[in-house]
Amino acid sequence: MQTNYLTVLLSIIVSLICSLHVLAQDIPNNDARTITPIDTIASPNALTTLTQGELKEGITIQDTVKNDTIVGPRETLTDIVSYSATDYARYDRRTQKLFLYNEAQVNYTDIEITAGEIIVDNNTNTVFAKGILDTTGTYNQPPVFVQGANTVEPDSIKFNFKTQKALIYGSNTQQQEFYIKNQVSKRVNDSVVFMQNVRFTTSSNTEDPEYYFYARKVKFVPGKKIVTGLVNMFIADVPTPLGVPFAYFPMEKETSVSGFILPSPGESNERGYFLQNGGYYFALSDYFDLTLQGDYYTNGSYGLRGSTSYRKRYKFNGNINVRFERLLTSERGLPDFTEANNYNIQWSHSQDSKSSPNSRFSASVNLGSSDFFRQSVNSNNIANRIQNNFSSSVSYSKTFQTVPQVNLSLTATHQQNSQTKVINMTLPTAQLSVDRIYPFAPKNGTKKGIIQNINLNYTMRGENRFETTDEDFFTAQMFRDAEMGIRHTIPITTNFKLLKNLSVSASSNYQESWVFETLKPHYDQTTNATVNDTINGFDSFRTYNVSASVGTTLYGVFNFGADKKIQKIRHVIKPSISYSYNPAFDQYYDTYLAPELNNPDGPLTREIEYSRFDGGFFGAPSNFKSSGIGISINNTLEAKVRDKDSTATEPKNITLLNNFAISTNYNFTADSLKLSPISVRGSIPILQEKLSINFNMTLDPYALNNNNRRIDKLNIANGGSLFRLTNASANFGYSFSSKNFNKKTENDDPLENQTYRNGGRPDNLFGKDIDDINGEFYEDETGQDKEDDVPQEFYNYSLPWNLRVNYNVNYGNSGRQNSITSHAVNFSGDVELGERWFVGVSSGLDFTNLRFTPTQLRFRRDLESFNMTFSWTPFGTYSSWNFFIGISSSVLKDLKYEKRRSPDQRL
Length: 907
Fold this sequence. Notes:
- The protein is mainly beta.
- It contains 7 helices and 57 strands.
- The strands form 6 sheets. The protein has a 30-stranded antiparallel β-sheet that branches. The chain has a 19-stranded antiparallel β-sheet that branches. A two-stranded antiparallel ribbon has the order 1-5.
- A hairpin with a 4-residue loop joins strand 37 and strand 38.
C-alpha cells in the first residue's frame, strides 16, 4: 500500500487553519463555564459578591457542559467576597481585576477593608487599598483594615485572600493601651506581624505624642505581645539615652501575665544606697495571684514582702500581705550599732452573703511588731506611723434553722498597743445563743399583758485569753499564761403598758461563771508578805440581779403663727426612771490572818477578806448590796420655719437641739456619796444633716477636801456652786467641697484603706499614702484615666476643692486642775489650681502644746502621658520627702523615676 503524500499535506494545512481560528476565540474557564459580559460598569453603590473565577453582578454565566464528569480545581476562597463603592465598580475581564472607587468597601469572612480606592485581582487573589487625593492634593479616605477585634489604619495595604498575608505601609493600630505606628509591616498571618521603623506610645495624641519608643524591627502578636530589637525612648521627638537592646511588652487581654517588677534606687542617710520594691509578679490563675518584692541596703539591711489577692465570684474575696524587715543601724562593732527584726501581717477576707446564707466567715487581721510602721524605711503613710492601736478579728458564724433558732460563732481577736507593746488576744471565743422564747404566749401570736410578754433566752460565751508582749508573742510562755473561762447567761424580761401612756419593762438576769484557775492567799512569815497560791481546777460562782424601768414620751408644741418666720417649735421629752437591785454574794468570800502593822498596842493579827476569784478571769462577784434608781431625760427641739423657696407649699423642718440627755443615779445602800455625777450630752446642728457639734460634760454635786478627794458633802454646802464641772468635751467633723458641700469619701471600701485597717481614720485627715498619691493617675484596665475625663476650660473661675476639718477640745477639772487637757483642729484638703495642677495639705494645730500636728504637703501635675507628684513632710519626727515622675499607663508604670528621703530613724 502506497502513501498518498498529497492527501497528508492537505490534511495538515486544514488542521493549522482550524487551529488559528480557535485561538482567535476567548479561552473558556477550566470548569467548562463560559463568562459572557453584559456590562463592564456596575451602578454606583452596588453591593456585589465575588467568588473564585466569577463575578455575580453584571455577568451572565452559561455552562457549555451541563453534566461535567471532570472535577474542577478547588477554589481558593472559602466564602463570598462582598464589595461596594460610591462612584463606580468596574471589572476588567482581560486582567481579571475589579476596580472600586470612592468610599470603597470589601468584606470577606471576618475581614473588612474600606478605602478611597480598592483593586481586587482575581488572578492573584489579592486586594490593594489606598486613599485618594482631592482637588487640593490632600490624601483622604486612607484604608482601614479590620479583622476580628484588630484594627489597622495604614496609608496603603496589599492583602492576599489565599495566604492571609499582607504588606502594610504607614499603619496605625491600637492594642489595649498602646498606639502603634510603623513605616512598613508584613502580616504573615492573623497572629504574627513583622514591622519596620516602628514607634509606639500610650499617648492618645498619636500624631504628636509627648513621648514614644522607637524600634527598627518589631515582631507583633496582636493581643499577646510585642518583641523588639534595639529600642530608644523619644520625648517631644528628641531622642534620649534611655534605651535597651531588646524589649518585651506583654499584651494579654483576658488574664494577667507573670513578670519582673523593677526596683527603685535611692539613698538613705542611715543605711546607704538601696534598691526598693524589686521582685516578681506571679499570675497563678484566674482566681489568685502572688507578688514577691524585696529591698536591699548597702549596710546589710533588707526587707521581704509577699502579697496575694484572691477572688471567686459569688463566693468570697480577700488579700494577704506579709512583710518582714531586718534593719541595721551604723556598723557592727560600733557603740551605736543596733539590729531589729520587724514584721507585719495583714489579712482581709469577706464572703458573699448569697454563697451561704446560714454560715459566714470573715477576717480582718493586722498584727506584727509594735515598731514596724515607726521604724520601717519603706512605709510612706504618716497616718500609720502615729497610730498606737492595732486590732484583728477572724470569725465564723453558723445559724441552725431550728425552733427556737440556734446561733454559733467562733472568733479570734487581737488588740495591740504599740506604745506599751502589750498584746491582748482571745483564741478562740466561742458563743452559743438560743433565740428568744415566749413560754406563755398564746397560739395566735398576739401577746398582751405582763404574763404573755415574759420571754427568756440563753447565751453561752467561752474565751481562751492571752496577755503578752512582743517578745513573748506566740511563744511557749504565752500559752502557759493563758486563762480560760465560760459564762452562761439567762435573761428573763417582760414589758407592758401602765395607765395607757407609761411603758414598763422588768427584767432579771441570771449568770453562772466557770473558771479553771483560782487563788488562795496566805501570809508568809519568812518573806513577811502575802503570797497568792494558784489552784488549778474547775470552780464556779452564780450571780443574779433584778431591774425595772418606766418611761413615756411628752410633746410640747408652741405655735407662733403661719405668717412668722418661725411658725412652730416642738419639744419632745422622753423621761425614764429605772430601779436596780444587786444582792451581796458573801458566800464566795473568806478570810486569812496577817500581822497587824504599825499598831503596837493593838491586836497582833488581823483578818483580811478575800475571794478565791479575785484577779481571775471574770473577777470576783460583789459582796456589797446595791439598790438604787436611775433618772434620765432626753430632749429634742424641732422647729418649722418658712421655706426660703417661694414656690414651696409646706414649711421646712429643722432640728435645733438633738438628743440632749441628762442622767444620774442614786444608790440607797451606799454609806456615802450616794448620788452619782450628772452626765450631760447632746448635739447642736449647725448645718442640717451636714454639721453638728457634739458635746458632753460631767457635773459633780459633791465637794473636794484639801487632798482633792471627794467627800460626803454637797459642794453648795461647802461654799461652792451647785455642781462642779469635772470634765467636758466638744467636737465636730465636716467635709466641705466646691460641689455644693457634698461630702466626699476618699475610699468607699474601708478595707482597701491601709490607714483605716491600721486603726486610723478612713478620710486621710492625717495625710495620704505616698504610693496612693503616685497611683492616682494610673489608667485602669480599659486604658481610661481614673480621673474624670472632662474637657477643661481655658479659665476656670471656680476652682474645684475639698476640705475636711475635725475639731475637738477637752476640759479637765476632777482634781482642781482647771485646764484644757487637749485642744486641736486637724484639716486635710486638695485644690485644683488650674488645668492638671493639684495641690493638697494635711495638717493641724495643737493649741495645748502650741505646735503643728503631723503635716504633709502634696503637689501633683498631670502631664497627660506622665504624672508627677511631690510629697513633703517639712518638720517633725517623720520629716521626709518623695518625688515621683512616671508614665500614667498601668502597663508601663515601672518606667518611672523616684527619689525620696526617708525619716531619720534616730528621731
